[in-house]
């Protein structure tokens, strides 16, 4: 075998199409590729490096002769088919929330906890988009200064809710500009009872509400951060907001560190050397990360590094990244690349 | 005299037109009204309660026989003409930042510090829009539990930057939908060097940058909050973000209180009785404040009240209000109503 036999589950979705793009660009050796999706999408023809690939309906047997399966077709699909894939010898990188908090499943952002890959039992979970870019920015700071507490407010793009949500934003926006009524059918959460317009209207709900008053998206940011950083004592609290943006999440992050010896300059230096981070921080010349500039790029962009002027161990950041790439497709393919590099791209016996 | 002779300075602007609307609805007795603006806007004809009023160019003599002058035409205009108005016997309510931090000028949100009106010397400053709605929500909590620290992230509507910024958002949005290039000429700050698209792109800059790395808008939230609440020890830090929204600011507010005896339920009860606040907080039924619902209303809408799950004296709120009404025009007219009620609508000898 020269390369891997790869399957993309959810190939027609907003993340799936980016997974294909990331696989076209990867250094990972690929022998063959298979696009899987629901029955509804089967028969569609997509490209891979210029060649036609017909989308097939996902069945257990789809995973025969597959070495690597990238899943991004919803938690239900992952729960049903990931075990079938692993049983047939495929390593699964799952972009859904189905297995993220399973103690037997590594939850990996390569820049942060690559070493967790050694523990995999056939399945590695890709964290939530909003968590990934935050931990990429905070990990180098945590390593140097310790991390006590994080208060984050996100401004998340609608593409995190899929292609239909992108279309909904565009349709509502055009209706608003034309003075017509906006029709909401998907956002804030397709599975919830009520739907509200997102055009020109930030919605402080992503995913459904928990009993605590937090949404499940906020819950994910809190608990995934602790798991990825392997530290249950880091306090994290979050407000997750959907905003009228197509691609790339922006995050306002306040954080408290253990050390009292940090400074804006030192943190900027740490970030400019950090893996996966691009520091864009020059207020004098109005340089700071923006969603439209981050879109299509694999990096996490960090700027507006500044001190809490009244607490000498607290700072703030503005963190922007393409939610479909580093937040999903790229992080998944990057995990596969790391597995290959560490000779872990096989289901352990 | 049966009523007051009122002048609106900046009558044709985004805030000015709302000031006129608020004056049409006010219980304040009004004998006559005068619309003032720049030379460029002079000659336009606007309505007041169905009657035509011709906009006049602002000159020092415009304020002869004026009892109350509402200013919202930029700091430069206020600096030049507010002293002329006061000299001629008018009480000035100024919506610009020109005099807000002057120790001799009360900075007033009637729900919070009405008593400061007794100290006025002819001029009362109206705080910054993003500050007003935050202090309306936090003051009742501060009164009950003490307030130690606030970490706020705003999502501010473009109307805060005026009518031209609204048009810029709409033009850019249409260009984006049509697949054309977006042309930015005003935002993030008309007076700054570079301009970036706001359509589908949150911009973490409102007003210009200070040496600390904070923008002047963030500086305002920090220092105006301390002044309005008469407590320099309240720690406040802010990230102010312009978002593609036409009207109404949304704010994610994390705060720490002195007391360890508060609860979500108690805070909800306090907020539901608080002046100027409408509690919209029922996650189970997806009830929370939204910009499109707050627009055109005078109240501050508060929801998503929840506990910081790892710090028992910290909580979070989602606060939404019409930035042109409570954030500007309504707060100014409300100040005038209070001055009248307290028999203070005259320049002290």
TrEMBL record, chains A, B:
Residues 5-120 form the Semialdehyde dehydrogenase NAD-binding domain. It comes from the Bacteria. One of its GO terms (molecular function) is aspartate-semialdehyde dehydrogenase activity. Gene3D superfamilies: Dihydrodipicolinate Reductase, domain 2, NAD(P)-binding Rossmann-like Domain. Keywords: Amino-acid biosynthesis, Diaminopimelate biosynthesis, Lysine biosynthesis, Methionine biosynthesis, NADP, Oxidoreductase, Threonine biosynthesis. NADP(+) binds at residues 12-15, 40-41, 159-160, 323. Pathway: Amino-acid biosynthesis; L-lysine biosynthesis via DAP pathway; (S)-tetrahydrodipicolinate from L-aspartate: step 2/4; Amino-acid biosynthesis; L-threonine biosynthesis; L-threonine from L-aspartate: step 2/5; Amino-acid biosynthesis; L-methionine biosynthesis via de novo pathway; L-homoserine from L-aspartate: step 2/3. It catalyses: L-aspartate 4-semialdehyde + phosphate + NADP(+) = 4-phospho-L-aspartate + NADPH + H(+). SUPFAM superfamilies: Glyceraldehyde-3-phosphate dehydrogenase-like, C-terminal domain (SSF55347), NAD(P)-binding Rossmann-fold domains (SSF51735). The active site is at residues 129, 249. Homodimer. Catalyzes the NADPH-dependent formation of L-aspartate-semialdehyde (L-ASA) by the reductive dephosphorylation of L-aspartyl-4-phosphate. NCBIfam families: asd_B, PRK14874.1. This is Aspartate-semialdehyde dehydrogenase. It comes from Dellaglioa algida DSM 15638.
